[in-house]
Structure formats: structure tokens, C-alpha cells
Design a protein that fits this description.
heterodimer; A: 355 residues; alpha/beta; abc type-2 transporter like fold; 2 domains; four-stranded mixed sheet; 15 helices; 64% helix; B: alpha/beta; four-stranded antiparallel sheet; 13 strands; globular
Chain lengths: 355, 287
């Protein structure tokens, strides 16, 4: 294999390769999915919880709340402004502290009027409640019988949907582009017979596969990192995450090359994607519905990509905890590489079947 | 003269079908060999084996001293292939197509513009190939097959479906390459083109080479030479009379004709390669 030829083929693929729906979908679909789910269930575009405060006396609360980094505190001078802000969503909650509030809570009783924006996020209300509780505790010096009751409506499952959907988004990001791009590129070259022209040049089938696989794997890795970042999960264990997702990206490109070597047209490729999606996204379904026995995930090869990612991000575990899955993932990638090597050797002597 | 291509007992099977049936031949350096045969005769399979795309079922092919099965890289870096079916990167320009292959072939100081000028594409170098006519694409395909100054050039129906001007331009390039010293392996259905360009032609039929010789020798060996006379008889009526030139009575028949008949025209006629192909194989070239 000559690196110069592989580099030339990669450059040709990047600058002159097909800019079709597969490429657009490879880039757009995972990003849109990540954005959509994070808008719906996550914290994207939502600032910190906003609390409005009208202090009719001279409470220490204002100073304590201002020092909190978890909320944005806005001070109001009259009740009407506070109510208007809560009504239009400028703040998640507005509270009115009566004159002598600090003395009241030190003697054991206090009344707080609170106005809540009806569309404020549940977690913002929880954060504000906790911060208020802490501040009251700091002023009074003891735990008061203050009970901020939060009623959650809808699904009260213990696993947030944002976390449940993350495996699906990450697998889509890695496997759609990583698999479809090399496969589509090979099919396109077969249909246009350009592969035949390459096959009588010094460029070998191995070099052609390496170039197309590299592009697929790079795209898969970039999309994986991007969607993880959009989901707000790319905050620690960078190297471990890159390693796991890099291996996942290689696996995706390998599967794409195998598909591209044998499939003759794009319709069949998309049909395979639909059918193969069951195998690829099985682990994501298992994560999405915790009531499914979790051991089922171990059956799927892609489980060994997504479980380490989930452990490193959502579960906050370290590298030590993913070694078992990592070893199996490396073994899977090596096994597929052996299969691809055999395909390359076979196709090198049977180019007619490739064209 | 040195031999560029030596083929010994070469065979290939597609399942139970023996597509190429143990053929043997050789081609000298600087020679143009025409490979003639109807569809399905085994021409393309033979070319694919000679260019390293297919491994033979039996036998071997040695090109420029290298066994193509054992050293495909050494062979492929020294040959050029012009396919019948257009297989250019159509979203790229002509010059980009050539430069890509020049890098893959490891050609230093490649001058693609000169090559494009030679095939009559000067001024259109940076146009996308998708906007080219069939003739322009075919000329670009030929230019691509020449980027590495190949010692052997395989051309598969290079003038198929082209207008006479484009065909003649391509024929001239083939002759120029021959004059440069390249060996040309020309696969064609066009007997006129083969007759005009080829030093020797091989007739391939059902996987076998049925005849291989120069067009002249094939015509002498298999063709019938005759004299065709147009004779005026009974006023305006004109009839044709054919006299076999290789008969022992030819001289007497010609004398009798000229003495007794009013001869309007008299000319010799020789067999075409198509006639000979039919005679040798029992099939037409265009079947």
C-alpha cells in the first residue's frame, strides 16, 4: 500500500466525491436529532433558572441568592413588574419577601408569596426551591419546616428521556455516516464504472477501500463527538470517549465497505440499512426502555460501543469501568478487519464482479 | 522483434461456462493487434485477464516480461486501458481526471494540457466532463489511457458510435502511439477499422482464437479473388459477370469476355475481413 496513493484517493473523494443525500443525511440527521431531543428534554438554549425578587424589607436573602451561581437573580421594586415578568416568562419564579422577613424565619414562621411562570421547566423550579431552602436555612441557622412541594406531571420514570435517547442519537451519528458514506461511494463508483478505471491503475483494491473507509470513519467520529457535545455530555473522559467512538467509527466504516462491496444499487443499500438498523440500534432500544432486560444489549456488537459511552458520560464512570467492553470492541473490529482483508484479496482477482 | 505480450494456454470460466478456452498467442512490441469477434466471444474476458482484473482459470499471460497474475502492479504501471464504456469522473474537469490518474501512476512533471491538446480538447480542459459530448469523452478516455506513456495500450471499441471526424482523430492517435513504439491491443467489431489499422488480427469465437494473421494473409488464405465485369447486352440492359481470378481458366475467360462482349466496367474484388470471419467461424461479427 502506498500512502501517497491513499492520500490522493482521499483527497479526490473529499473534493469530488458524491455530494448526495447520503452525505447530507449523514451530517444533518444526527445533529437535528440531538438538537431536537435536547430542545425537548434537555437544557439546550435554556439559561439558568431565573428568579425574581421583591424585597419589601432589608432581607439578607437577596445577598445570599445573588451569590448563587445556579440561578439568575433579578431584583424588582414593585409587585406589578414582578408579576408581569413571571407572566411573560422573563423569570421562572417571582417571590415577594415581606418586611422583617429575616426576623420572621428566625422566630419560626414566614409567608412567601410566589408567582410561577406556567411554562417554566420542571428542573428550574426544583433548582429555585432548593436554593431558597438553603438560603432560609443559612439565615435562620436551623432547618425550618419549610416544605417546597414539587409536583411532576407526565412520565415520572427515574431515567430522564434525555439520557434514554442519548444512545440512539450517538449510534445514529456514528453508524449512519460511517456506514453509508463508504458504501454509497463504492456503489456509486461501481455504477459509473470508475472503479474499473481505478482497478487497472496501480491503485489497489486495498488502497481504494482504505481511502473510502478512512473518510467514513472520520465522518463518523466527528459526528459522534459533535452530537455528544450538543447533548452536553462531552465534558469529561475526553480521551476515553475519543478512543471508544473512534473504534465505533472504524466498525461503522468496515460494515459500510462490506455492504458497498456486494450491493449493486442505492435502493438495496437503503433496504439493508432499514433491516440492519434492527441489529445496529438494538442496544439503543434497550436503553430507551429500561423495563427490557438489560442483558439483551450484550447480544449486539454496537452495544460495546454505546455502553462505554453511556458509562463515561451519563453514569460518570472512569476508564477502568469500560475496559471489558473495550477489549470486546477491539476484538470485534479486528475480526471484521480480517473479513475485509479476505474480501479485498478476493475482489483483487475478480474485479469483474466488482464492476 | 521483442514480444510485449505472450499468452500461453489462457482460460477462464464463469461457473460452467468456459468463456476463454485455452488460447495462446503473442504480440510483438510496436505491433497493432486487432481482436475481432461477436459479443460473448471472450474478448473482454481476455482483456480483463491481460490487464490484471481477472485471474485466469488456467494458463498464463506475460506482459513486458512480467506474469500479470504474479505481478499485477508491475504490469498495470506500464499499460494503459481505454474502455468501451465511459468511466470518467464526470463531476471533475478533464484536467482533474488526468491529474488524478497521473498521481496514481506516479508520473512526475505531468503535462495534462499537452495531452488534452493532442486529443483535440484544448480550450475545454477545465470544463466539467458531464458537459462533454460522447466524442469528447471518448477522446478524454484515450488521453487518460496515455498519462503514463504506456508500453502497451488496450483499446476496447475506441471509435464505437463516433462520427467520422472523431473516429479518424482517434485512429491517428493509435497510429502515433504505434510509431512511438507502443503495442496496441485493439478490440473491435469494426472490420474496416481493423483492416486499416492492424498489423495482425485475431478472430475470436466461443472462447477460442479461430485465426490469427495479417489482414492481407487472411484474405489470401481464405478470401476469393474475382473480376467483376459489367456487360451491355441487347441495347441498354447491363448484366454483371464474375470471373474467378484463381481458376486455371481465368486467362481464357477474360479473353473471351473482352472479345465477345461489350464490357462497360471491369474491376477486381477481394474478400473483406467480415467475409473471412464468416467463412472461418460460421458467424457474423455483429451477431
Amino acid at each position: 500500500m502506498k500512502l501517497k496513493r491513499i492520500r490522493t484517493l482521499i483527497k479526490n473523494e473529499v473534493f469530488h466525491g458524491p455530494k448526495d443525500m447520503v452525505l447530507v443525511m449523514s451530517v444533518a440527521m444526527p445533529v437535528l436529532l440531538a438538537l431536537f431531543f435536547n430542545l425537548a428534554f434537555g437544557n439546550i438554549f435554556s439559561d439558568r433558572a431565573a428568579l425574581g425578587l421583591l424585597d419589601k424589607g432589608d432581607s439578607e436573602m437577596a445577598t445570599l441568592l445573588q451569590s448563587s451561581s445556579s440561578i439568575n437573580l433579578k431584583i424588582y421594586n414593585n409587585e406589578d413588574d414582578l408579576k408581569a415578568a413571571a407572566a411573560n416568562g422573563s423569570i421562572d419564579m417571582g417571590i415577594i419577601l415581606p418586611a422583617g422577613f429575616d426576623n420572621m424565619i428566625q422566630t419560626g414562621s414566614a409567608d412567601i408569596q410566589a408567582y410561577t411562570w406556567g411554562e417554566s421547566m420542571l428542573k428550574h423550579r426544583v433548582i429555585i426551591g432548593t436554593i431558597l431552602n438553603d438560603a432560609i436555612h443559612d439565615i435562620s441557622g436551623s432547618t425550618l419546616p419549610v416544605n417546597i412541594e414539587t409536583i411532576a406531571l407526565g412520565d415520572v420514570s427515574s431515567v430522564p428521556w434525555n439520557d434514554r435517547l442519548l444512545p440512539m442519537i450517538i449510534l445514529t451519528a456514528i453508524f449512519f455516516g460511517g456506514m453509508m458514506l463508504p458504501a454509497a461511494s463504492l456503489i456509486n463508483e461501481k455504477n459509473k464504472h470508475t472503479l474499473e478505471a481505478l482497478s487497472v491503475s496501480p491503485a489497489t483494491i486495498g488502497e481504494i477501500f482504505t481511502a473510502k473507509g478512512t473518510i467514513g470513519a472520520m465522518l463518523a467520529l466527528v459526528m459522534g463527538v459533535l452530537t455528544l457535545a450538543i447533548s452536553g455530555q462531552f465534558h469529561s473522559s475526553f480521551l476515553s470517549l475519543i478512543l471508544v467512538m473512534g473504534l465505533g467509527a472504524v466498525m461503522a466504516a468496515q460494515l459500510g465497505l462490506i455492504a458497498g462491496a456486494y450491493i449493486r444499487d442505492m435502493n438495496t443499500l437503503f433496504a439493508l440499512w432499514k433491516f440492519g438498523g434492527l441489529l445496529l440500534f438494538g442496544p439503543a432500544v434497550v436503553y430507551m426502555f429500561p423495563q427490557i432486560p438489560q442483558w439483551i444489549g450484550y447480544i449486539f456488537p454496537t452495544f460495546y460501543v454505546i455502553k462505554p459511552v453511556v458509562d463515561l458520560t451519563i453514569n460518570g464512570l472512569g476508564f477502568d469501568s469500560i475496559i471489558f467492553e473495550l477489549v470486546i470492541l477491539i476484538a470485534i473490529v479486528a475480526a471484521i478487519m480480517i473479513i475485509i482483508n479476505r474480501i479485498v484479496v478476493k475482489l483483487s482477482s475478480q474485479a469483474l464482479r466488482l464492476n | 522483434m521483442e514480444k510485449s505480450i505472450i499468452v500461453e494456454n489462457l482460460a477462464f470460466r464463469y461457473g460452467n461456462l468456459l468463456a476463454v478456452d485455452h488460447i495462446s498467442f503473442d504480440v510483438k512490441a510496436g505491433e497493432i493487434l486487432g481482436f475481432l469477434g461477436p459479443n460473448g466471444a471472450g474478448k473482454t474476458t481476455t482483456v480483463k485477464m491481460l490487464t490484471g482484473q481477472l485471474h485466469p482459470y488456467a494458463g498464463k499471460a506475460v506482459l513486458l516480461g512480467y506474469d500479470v497474475t504474479k505481478n499485477p502492479d508491475k504490469v498495470q504501471s506500464r499499460i494503459g486501458v481505454c474502455f468501451e464504456q465511459t468511466n470518467l469522473y464526470e463531476q471533475m474537469s478533464a484536467i482533474e481526471n488526468l491529474k488524478l490518474f497521473a498521481v496514481l501512476f506516479g508520473v512526475d512533471n505531468f503535462n495534462g494540457y499537452a495531452l488534452l491538446q493532442r486529443v483535440g480538447l484544448a480550450g475545454r480542459e477545465k470544463d466539467k466532463v458531464s458537459g462533454y459530448s460522447k466524442g469528447m469523452k471518448q477522446r478524454l478516455m484515450i488521453a487518460r489511457s496515455l498519462v503514463n506513456k504506456p508500453q502497451i495500450i488496450f483499446m476496447d471499441e475506441p471509435t464505437s458510435g463516433l462520427d467520422p471526424v472523431s473516429s479518424e482523430a482517434i485512429d491517428n492517435i493509435i497510429l502515433e502511439e504505434r510509431d512511438r513504439g507502443a503495442t496496441i491491443f485493439l478490440t473491435t467489431h469494426d472490420m474496416w477499422e481493423a483492416d486499416k489499422l492492424c498489423d495482425r488480427v485475431a478472430f475470436m469465437n466461443q472462447g477460442k482464437i479461430e485465426a490469427l494473421d495479417s489482414p492481407r494473409n487472411l484474405k489470401q488464405q481464405y478470401g476469393k479473388r474475382s473480376l467483376i465485369a459489367e456487360i451491355s447486352s441487347n441495347g441498354d440492359a447491363i448484366v454483371k459477370k464474375e470471373i474467378d481470378m484463381d481458376s486455371p481458366n481465368t486467362a481464357a475467360e477474360v479473353e473471351k469476355l473482352l472479345t465477345n462482349e461489350k464490357v462497360i466496367t471491369l474491376h477486381s474484388e477481394e474478400a473483406t475481413l467480415e467475409d473471412i470471419f464468416i467463412k472461418v467461424t460460421g458467424r457474423r461479427l455483429t451477431e
